[in-house]
Amino acid sequence: MSQTRWYQERSKEGYYLRAKKEGYRARSAYKLQQINEKYNVIREADAVADLGCAPGGWLQVLVEAVGSGGTVVGVDLQRIKPIPGAKAIQGDFTVRATHQKLASLLSEDQRKGLDCVVSDMAPDMSGNYDIDQFRSVHLSEMALDFATQHLREGGHFVCKVFEGADFQPFRNDVKTRFKSLYQYHPPASRKQSSEIYLVAKGFKGKPEEKKASKPDDEEPVNPRPLARR
Ligand SMILES: C[S@@+](CC[C@H](N)C(=O)[O-])C[C@H]1O[C@@H](n2cnc3c(N)ncnc32)[C@H](O)[C@@H]1O
Known about the structure:
The protein is an alpha/beta fold and 229 residues long. Helices cover 37% and strands 21% of the residues. β4, α6 (129-150) and β5 (151-162) form a beta-alpha-beta unit. The model is unreliable at 210-216 and 225-229 (pLDDT under 50).
């Protein structure tokens, strides 16, 4: 499809037009609004981390939801234009140094833990669904790993994943760490999209800390080896 045609198609979409009119940077803002209306995972004065936050639609929704007493931090490979009320860093979430930068941003707030971690991360599409699906699950596993380190007990986790072969093991992993788990396809997601949002509520708390070796800053955060494919 030519770029002009793509823009024409996109501009026909209701949520895209609505986002332009209402000042949201991305139509995906409505996905998070719908998730929160249904599951009430983000509340006033909460501290929230947004993984894969560019161009900033979710950050805007989060800032509105937590209000002036809340904390919103985000990370993305892309640089984003500042959003009042949110702090964002540019970095690759697959390397440990980025987790550490995000953690030090969070520590400025001196809270005991995050109330919610949301991840809308999506890999660059290769055109091969199996590979893209595997990469999506890989990013989600890293988001879960971060959530496990930084959520307070009772906190919540929202994560986009593509359906496919690697989805179920990931879902099971999330399920063991939270009291309840829901699967949701918000109305603002395209009908034909294979993305699913997992909404996990009531974090059970950190598992026993293993004696960690000193982390290498550029060491990839890789809970499951990518070499499988
Ligand atoms: C669908 S977009 C997020 C849209 C965002 N929720 C919003 O409302 O504006 C997915 C984002 O994931 C980011 N992403 C993908 N892989 C990443 C990685 N390894 N580290 C950080 N961000 C990543 C992409 O750069 C992209 O901006």
